[in-house]
Amino acid sequence: MQIDFIKPSQVNEYLNQGAQFIDLRDRQDYEQKHIKHALSIPFDQFEERYQSLPKNRTYVLYCERGGSSTLAAKKMLSQGYRVLSLSGGIVAFFRKK
Fold this sequence. Notes:
The chain contains five helices and five strands. The chain is an alpha/beta fold.
């Protein structure tokens, strides 16, 4: 199963298209900085929480550098969700600014 990635420069484009961004870092990291309108679902809670999300949306997952979001994206893809991962995570997103 192939995971598609978006570049940090594409974040605003996906936000404008209505994609739901999901921040997989812990709540403290989320509070310090996150992508506008991102939903906080810490990775250690992901397994129990993601299935309550509707399948009729596109989701873009991110974490610190991309490892956890890739694992979570594989799980969501296997359950029929439309999901992408942010290449390089939040570090790459804030580096581009």
